Amino acid sequence: MAQVPVAEGVFTWPSDAPALIGSRCVACGNHMFPVQSGCPKCSGDSTETVTLGRRGTLWTWTIQGFPPKAPPYAGDADPKTFRAFGVGYVELPGEVKVEARLTESDPEKLKIGMEMELVIVPLSTDENGDEVVTFAFAPVA
Ligand SMILES: [Zn+2]
Questions:
Q1: Residue pair 38/29 in contact by the 8 Å Cβ criterion
Q2: What is the pLDDT of residue 35?
Q3: How far is 18 from 83, CA to CA, in rounded Å?
Q4: Can the peptide bond before residue 67 be classed as cis, meaning omega within 30 degrees of 0?
């Protein structure tokens, strides 16, 4: 079974140390995710593609307790089998806040400011029987 990324150009894959792919503004150094050709901060139109830091801190979070609307949601949207998951913003130091799925869905185990690390997790199975994978942040043990 192959593992295919949910979208191209979002994270480095396959990789032992996967990282998100973002943009850095050449003019002001602002980081963006996902990749953007223009900078919303300084209106500059020159950006370079960079891999972002793999660790950050949990800025805020919630629990997604029902299936998001599909599409665009590409995971299991069947209310009978859907499992709640955490969603949060992770602040990558000196870079950008990234909205992402969290591997942890227990509110007791999520705390603002805790250290998080990027991981790649299974999302669904596509029509070829391949496993579709996406990025998520996991608490650092
Ligand atoms: Zn800029």
A1: no
A2: 97
A3: 25
A4: no
Taking the centre of ligand 1 as the mean of its atom positions, its distance from the CA of residue 47, in whole angstroms, is 8
Q: Which amino acid is at 115?
A: E
Mean pLDDT of 51-71: 94
pLDDT band at 141 (very low <50, low <70, confident <90, very high): confident
Using the mean position of ligand 1's atoms as its centre, give its distance from the Cα of residue 29 in Å: 6
Task: Tell me, in angstroms, the distance from the centre of ligand 1 to residue 46's CA.
Answer: 8
The pair of structure tokens assigned to 79 is 């209310």
CA–CA distance, 130 with 121 (Å, rounded to integer): 13
Q: State the pLDDT at residue 22.
A: 98
Taking the C-alpha atoms of residue 124 and residue 141, their distance in angstroms, rounded to an integer, is 26
pLDDT exceeds cutoff 90 at 76: no
